[in-house]
């Protein structure tokens, strides 16, 4: 009946469902591909009784490299072609606002720093600097040591924003540099600027985090500290220094901007597959972290499926955010959703 129902439908309408897959703890654990991941994606690529592609995207709080580089690696790991239009990582959403900072110096943190600078430049940032640039700085060398003589004057332009793109590798250096930039109004070594959240002084340096994950699942037996833990460390140090909490912007799952961005991408994916702009009837988020994947999907009125191959495990008791379904793994999650829709 499933085949008959779908084949009659598939002639006149695209599949009414689409998927958003988390990566770490759902498809991968570190470098290891989880057992049912390849089969699950092949099913959506058309290897199913209906012989029809079902739209899907990958929606991760990971990052640190270009979307192009990560898609190439994911395609070879997962055995299907992952295109950049199907891939959203923690800082992809920043592409939309990079033009606002085109000629302003910004600090970008996280991952392998030469790579993260290249990602920022690919988004349109013209003066993206890393904490290693700041570290290289000394009275004889400007913070932006690769700056040309003609641009030397602009080096005195304050850093206008700090973007934590990916998980920082050297928390001590990065917390130190973020505090230096904020407490000098953007010019390290400049006159100190007092920040007091109780006064009405404008924060002169924006602070943007792209991934709130306190923990995530790699191939170690227990979840690992993520960018959300780094954010807690920064705020604790800044509070100890100033008695204030510095305001910040948060992107990444479960935030509303990231899920709205993902919904747009999926709608375009449906249009590119089937040439129609109809609103998606049901989006299934398959995730391993109740605080990011399930919380965000539920808030976005998607259907949420929590798998047992990542951060969440039953010995923690019930998840903090209730999924529509609990699956052992991503393979079971995909078939449960398809059968639920037909
Ligand atoms: O750094 C990546 C980690 O925070 C989580 O990644 O794929 O589970 O959203 P993911
Ligand atoms: Mg995950």
Automatic annotation (TrEMBL):
InterPro entries given in the database record: CDP-alcohol_PTase-I, HAD-like_sf, HAD-SF_hydro_IIA, HAD-SF_hydro_IIA_CECR5, HAD_sf
Coiled-coil segments on the chain, per record: none
Tree of life domain: Eukaryota
Cross-referenced Pfam families: Hydrolase_6, Hydrolase_like
The record's Gene Ontology cellular component field reads: mitochondrion
GO terms (BP aspect): glycerophospholipid biosynthetic process
| Matching SUPFAM superfamilies | HAD-like (SSF56784)
Listed name of the protein: HAD hydrolase
The lineage, from the top, is: Eukaryota, Fungi, Dikarya, Basidiomycota, Agaricomycotina
């Amino acid at each position: 009946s499933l085949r008959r129902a779908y084949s009659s439908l598939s002639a006149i309408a695209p599949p009414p469902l689409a998927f958003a897959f988390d990566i770490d703890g759902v498809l991968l654990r570190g470098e290891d591909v989880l057992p049912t991941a390849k089969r699950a994606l092949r099913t959506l690529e058309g290897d199913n009784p209906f012989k029809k592609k079902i739209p899907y995207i990958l929606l991760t709080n990971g990052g640190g490299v270009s979307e192009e580089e990560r898609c190439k690696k994911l395609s070879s790991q997962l055995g299907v072609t992952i295109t950049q239009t199907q891939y959203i990582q923690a800082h992809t959403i920043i592409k939309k606002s990079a033009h606002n900072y085109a000629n302003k110096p910004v600090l970008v943190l996280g991952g392998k720093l030469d790579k993260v600078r290249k990602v920022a430049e690919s988004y349109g940032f013209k003066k993206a600097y890393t904490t290693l640039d700041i570290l290289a700085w000394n009275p004889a060398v400007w913070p932006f040591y690769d700056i040309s003589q003609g641009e030397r004057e602009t080096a005195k332009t304050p850093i206008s924003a700090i973007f934590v793109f990916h998980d920082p590798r050297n928390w001590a250096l990065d917390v130190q540099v973020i505090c230096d930039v904020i407490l000098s109004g953007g010019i390290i070594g400049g006159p100190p600027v007092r920040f007091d959240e109780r006064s009405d002084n404008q924060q002169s340096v924006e602070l943007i985090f792209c991934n709130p994950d306190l923990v995530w699942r790699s191939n170690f037996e227990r979840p690992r500290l993520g960018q959300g833990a780094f954010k807690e460390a920064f705020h604790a140090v800044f509070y100890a220094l100033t008695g204030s909490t510095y305001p910040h912007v948060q992107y990444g799952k479960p935030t509303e901007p990231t899920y709205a961005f993902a919904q747009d991408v999926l709608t375009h994916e449906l249009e590119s597959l089937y040439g129609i702009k109809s609103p998606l009837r049901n989006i299934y988020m398959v995730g391993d972290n109740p605080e990011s994947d399930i919380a965000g999907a539920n808030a976005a009125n998607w259907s949420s499926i929590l798998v047992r191959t990542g951060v969440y495990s039953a010995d923690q008791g019930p998840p903090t955010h209730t999924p529509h379904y609990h699956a052992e793994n991503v393979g079971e999650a995909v078939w449960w959703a398809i059968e639920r829709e037909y």
